[in-house]
Amino acid sequence: MRMRAIILMLIIVSGTYMMLQSKSTNDISSFTTILNAMDSPVQTVTFIKPAATDHELQLQTIEQSTQIDHFLAFLEHYQLQAVDIAPTSSTTYEQFTILLEDDHHNVITILLQDDFVTFNDDHFYEILNGPLDAQQLATFFFQSST
What we know:
By secondary structure, this protein is an alpha+beta fold.
């Protein structure tokens, strides 16, 4: 009787583990999936650099389609996992932030230090194979500023 109880417990535990494992793998997507959810192509990419004071955010907006396409191709290599909670600093720009916006004002926000992505402030994702490559970001940032 004890042996049957032990076997039954092992079956229940392994079944629960498999259910949790299959749910976590189903929530993994790429940036391409999120970009396709936007109503129209990305029109602007804005880099926000926090400043020492609250009033001096440094912004750089890119609207050239070739540079935007190059940046989106860079993002396609990263995988995201949906999460239920919002980051604590999603609207305060206390860290380096990248905004991707389309013509219909859909916005994808990338919080670099938290490895966090939001879509229209109501869908939240964690970057799984991050952090984003800082060298690539710096190269893109400097090339687009010239």
